[in-house]
Each structure stands twice: as structure tokens, then as C-alpha cells.
Design a protein that fits this description.
Layout lengths: L1 E13 L3 E3 L2 E3 L3 E3 L7 H13 L5 H4 L12 H14 L2 E11 L9 H12 L6 E6 L5 H4 L3 E12 L1
Parallel strand pairs: 5-6
Antiparallel strand pairs: 1-4, 1-7, 2-3, 5-7
Helix pairs in contact: 1-3, 3-4
Bound molecules: magnesium ion (MG).
Length: 157
């Protein structure tokens, strides 16, 4: 068994779709990003890669590479799973926390878990997604950014 940790943040700007855990969430602001800017999945990718010491999301999917422009992060997550499998690892469980001032994410968490369960090929009971606000603190607390933290446990096949 090996454990990995990941973190991601994106500035929130007008005219971008807010996507977290592969779920489109109605909002006037969305992440400024080269891909779809799914901070939860980006943190999760770094946690999975970190557990296997396979580098980080920027090395696997360079932001200057045009093929990743506005790409769904679920596709990147799928490719991350392939990289893990090639290295002889598979995920066992993941835990995560999203920091977002608004909107409240509670109604979307089950769909996020369902998406991640399908992408990681592990049961939903092995996937935790938590959401909280920053109580007005800092840029995220002022609604100008989204952040996510994730840990992942992987096992060698
Ligand atoms: Mg990111």
C-alpha cells in the first residue's frame, strides 16, 4: 500500500463553466484554466501520481500542449489510471475536500462520487468528497478561487 497527496486551485472568472468531480454546477463564475479546470480531479490526479511517485499533473499533461485545451479532466483521470496500471498500481480509496464559497456543493456530491467511482473503477463507498467554505477568509473565501485537497491509497497489483 502507498499513499499520495494532491492539491489544486484555480482563480474563478466570468464566462467559464464550473466543473467539479465531472459535474457541471450552475454558476456565474468558473475556473480560469487550460483544461476544464476541475480542481477536485486535478488534486486527485496529483494524489494518485504522488502515491506512485510518477511525477505530477503538469508533467503528464503539459498546460502548453494544445491537445489539452478545455479537455474534460475525467479524460485526464482515465489516462492517469492507465499510467498507474502500467506502473503496476491500482487505487483502493480516495478522500478529498473542496473549498468553495458558493454555491453550496452538497447537492452535487453524490454525482461527483458516482463519476469518480466509474473513472477509478472502485466502489462509491471507497470515495469520499467533502465540501466546505473558507468562512470569508482569503481569495477563496471572497469567492475568487476554488481549491481542492485529495489523498489516495493505492496498492501494488
Ligand atoms: Mg488545476
Amino acid at each position: 500500500m502507498r499513499i499520495g497527496f494532491g492539491y489544486d486551485s484555480h482563480r474563478l472568472v466570468p464566462g467559464r463553466a464550473l466543473v467539479l468531480g465531472g459535474v457541471h454546477i450552475p454558476n456565474t463564475l468558473g475556473p480560469e484554466a487550460h483544461s476544464d479546470g476541475d480542481a477536485l480531479i486535478h488534486a486527485l490526479i496529483d494524489a494518485l501520481l504522488g502515491a506512485c511517485a510518477l511525477g505530477d499533473i503538469g508533467q503528464l499533461f503539459p498546460p502548453e500542449d494544445e491537445q489539452y485545451r478545455n479537455i474534460s479532466s475525467r479524460i485526464l483521470l482515465g489516462r492517469t489510471l492507465e499510467a498507474l496500471a502500467t506502473a503496476g498500481f491500482r487505487p483502493r480509496n480516495v478522500d478529498s475536500t473542496i473549498l468553495l464559497e458558493s454555491p453550496r456543493l452538497g447537492p452535487y456530491v453524490e454525482e461527483m462520487r458516482s463519476n469518480l467511482s466509474a473513472d477509478l473503477n472502485i466502489p462509491g463507498t471507497a470515495i469520499s468528497v467533502k465540501a466546505k467554505t473558507k468562512e470569508g477568509l482569503g481569495e477563496t473565501g471572497k469567492g475568487r478561487a476554488v481549491e481542492a485537497y485529495a489523498v489516495a491509497l493505492v496498492e501494488e497489483r
